From TrEMBL:
Keyword Magnesium annotated: yes
Name assigned to this protein: Acetyl-coenzyme A synthetase
Cellular component GO terms held in the UniProt record: cytosol
Organism: Aureimonas fodinaquatilis
GO terms, biological process: acetyl-CoA biosynthetic process from acetate
Length: 650
């Protein structure tokens, strides 16, 4: 039998001294007196003009407004760099580990300062001003962090687009953010394969241009030296330009509520939303969580294996660790290149103390057996973290026992792009662990479970996860669409922020996230709106209708299952199936690749024409004994056909 509770071991005691009772006391205070609690915590960062007002937030329908430290001013890059220079100028800020194990680089805080200032000066030279949007489409190289910090230095708003997205997806985000400056690289490198970033960027700029969004500057970092097209006047080589600008750039004084970044994320309907985060509250919260969740200690090497294209990379590769004067590791490669020992080799090579990754990677590596882990030492490891999707107890236990040798606590951190930072998680040394549970809320976080009618559920219960009050790193709005912000997050259960997640609370008050309850699926920890895949499929000339659902997948957590109705007279062939998969990949990117396509002459619809997704989900899950009531269908006969032709799962 696996343990259901893992007690706190003596050697897990927090460096900062926080224990179980301390957590409880701080948590209680954070709810009783948010102004007092956050007023005090706000001092962990440097303010140019100190705040006098701490919390000013409202979840009231029609008046959703979230402000923290609103009259304070600061600069985020100065907090992540300048203030550390005196004490840590020669300390490594960023360790970069390349795709090729022979490639690595260490960047000190002093060097980080100079590179960020140079990039900031280059942005200014190209006309970038406070409030302008700068889009990044970057591989996992230090220049991605330089560019983010450079934006924050000049007060520009960065919008990082994951390097795996297609030219179309990038173009949509350039348009959405009305961004005329793009920072990219010649090519990316992952698992020994080249990714044509600049080529994709050129195409995206062309598409955006046709849609009315001109991009007049493309800064290109040379990564592989591969052949690219250079557009005179528009394209700027970073390695050349950096020699022509000063390595000093005074930071802009920004208000706590000025935007820091936009990050596009999928929702259950429509196009991806530009989630907007601001400077002050965000930085306070990500630095505080980075310290207490992981028990980050001075001088340690901390490694989060996410990509900077996702929120985890923003908050826990760049901003949190650097605000804390930490050493953060950036990894360009993948877990199974050159072989499945790579993660642990990197841990040994750089003496990593804290390692933070996603369940999908853990499951994939677990599948490769214990040997690739056991042949490495891992003795530097002290803490293991998980994020992105529910971690099944089996994977949790493997991570704990085999990777961490039962020496390292596993912190399962639940949060979202929208929340900016970790909201539900154990704190190393202060929380007893339960494999598969994200455990307890962080300071200031008030989870609530409600049923589908919005009735509040008390005690042990299973329901929809809401948050009843604000926390400092909460998203402030959807860029350019405050109504959609209110509609998306505050209208399902008025007066509360609805997360879109299902959740169980047990007798001990521990939270167990059960997954999305909306039409968002989580594929390898990446959020995907089923509506996005559907609209890509129906844009194919041979497709008449499509419905997309998730199904359980051993490695990815969820796979993408598509029901496709073809145009009258079109033959359903394997060729066409492949073509449709490729079509979606081209449209959105490889992360949206359909796993299963079932050609279905009809979809189950109500008499009013609404597709009954519940039925499609059950069939995709191979759970067609439990279809429930199908009598309201316009044509109940389609269900038999769907069951008969389902695509067997692998
Ligand atoms: C899911 C990633 C269970 C959840 C930081 C959430 C999790 C969505 C966990 C957000 C976890 C994230 N346990 N589920 N520890 N962490 N999720 O915006 O469904 O990419 O709503 O942010 O991932 O994904 P996002």
């Amino acid at each position: 039998m696996e343990p259901t509770v893992v007690d706190i071991k003596d050697e897990w005691k927090q460096g900062a001294g926080l224990d179980e009772a301390g957590y409880a006391a701080w948590y209680a205070q954070s709810l009783q007196d948010p102004d007092g609690f956050w007023g005090e915590q706000g001092k962990r960062i440097d303010w140019i003009k100190p705040y006098t007002r701490v919390k000013n937030t409202s979840f009231e329908p029609g008046n959703i407004s979230i402000k923290w430290y609103e009259d304070g001013t600061l600069n985020v890059s100065a907090n992540c760099i300048d203030r550390h220079l005196e004490k840590r100028g020669n300390q490594t800020a960023i360790i970069w580990e390349g795709d090729d194990p022979a490639d690595s680089r260490a960047i000190t805080y002093r060097e980080l300062y100079e590179e960020v200032c140079r990039m900031a000066n280059l942005l200014k030279e190209r006309g970038v001003k406070r409030g302008d949007r700068v889009t990044l489409y970057m591989p996992m190289i230090p220049e991605a962090a330089f560019a983010m910090l450079a934006c924050s230095r000049v007060g520009a708003i960065h919008s990082v687009v994951f390097g795996g997205f297609s030219p179309d997806a990038l173009a949509g985000r350039l348009e959405g953010a009305a961004s005329s400056v793009l920072i990219t690289a010649d090519e990316g490198l992952r698992g020994g394969r080249k990714i044509p970033l600049k080529k994709n960027a050129d195409r995206a700029v062309e598409i955006a241009g046709k849609a009315g969004q001109a991009v007049d500057t493309v800064i290109v970092v040379r990564r592989t030296g591969g052949d690219i097209n250079v557009v005179e006047g528009r394209d700027v080589w970073w390695h050349e330009a950096r020699l022509t600008v000063a390595a000093e750039c005074p930071p802009e004084e920004m208000s706590a509520e000025d935007p820091l970044f936009i990050l596009y994320t999928s929702g259950s309907t429509g196009k991806p939303k530009g989630v907007l985060h601001t400077t002050g509250g965000y930085l306070v919260y990500v630095s505080l969580t980075h310290q207490y969740v992981f028990d980050y200690r001075d001088g340690e090497v901390y490694w989060c294996s996410a990509d900077v294209g996702w929120v985890t990379g923003h908050s826990y590769i760049v901003y949190g660790p650097l605000a804390n004067g930490g050493t953060t590791l950036m990894f360009e490669g993948v877990p199974n290149y050159p072989d499945t020992s790579r993660f642990w080799q990197v841990v040994d090579k750089h003496k990593v103390s804290i390692f933070y990754t996603a369940p999908t990677a853990i499951r994939a590596l677990m599948g490769a057996g214990d040997e690739p882990v056991l042949k490495t030492s891992r003795k530097s490891l002290r803490v293991l973290g998980s994020v992105g999707e529910p971690i099944n107890p089996e994977a949790w236990n493997w991570y704990y026992r085999v990777v961490g040798q039962e020496r390292c606590p596993v912190v399962d951190t639940w949060w979202q792009t929208e929340t900016g930072g970790i909201l539900i998680s154990p704190l190393v040394g202060a929380t007893k662990l339960k494999p598969g549970s994200a455990t307890l809320p962080f300071f200031g976080v008030v989870p609530q479970l409600v049923d589908n009618e919005g009735k509040v559920l008390e005690g042990a219960a299973d329901g929809n996860l809401c948050l009843t009050d604000s926390w400092p790193s909460q998203m402030r709005t959807i860029f350019g669409d405050h109504d959609r912000f209110e509609q998306t997050y505050f209208s399902t259960y008025p007066g509360k922020y609805f997360t879109g997640d299902g959740c169980r609370r047990d007798e001990d008050g521990y939270y167990w996230i059960t997954g999305r309850v909306d039409d968002v699926i989580n594929v390898s920890g990446h959020r995907m709106g089923t509506a996005e895949v559907e609209s890509s499929l129906v844009a194919h000339p041979l497709v008449s209708e499509a419905a997309v659902v998730g199904y359980p997948h051993d490695i990815k957590g969820q796979g993408i299952y598509c029901y496709v109705t073809l145009m009258e007279g079109v033959e359903p062939t394997d060729e066409l199936r492949k073509e449709l998969v490729q079509h979606v990949r081209n449209d959105i990117g490889a992360i949206a690749s359909p796993d299963k396509i079932q050609f279905s002459p009809g979809l189950p619809k109500t008499r009013s024409g609404k597709i009954m997704r519940r039925i499609l989900r059950k069939i995709a899950e191979d759970d067609f004994g439990a279809l429930g009531d199908t009598s309201t269908l316009a044509d109940p006969g389609v269900v038999d056909d769907l069951i008969g032709n389902r695509q067997n799962r692998k």
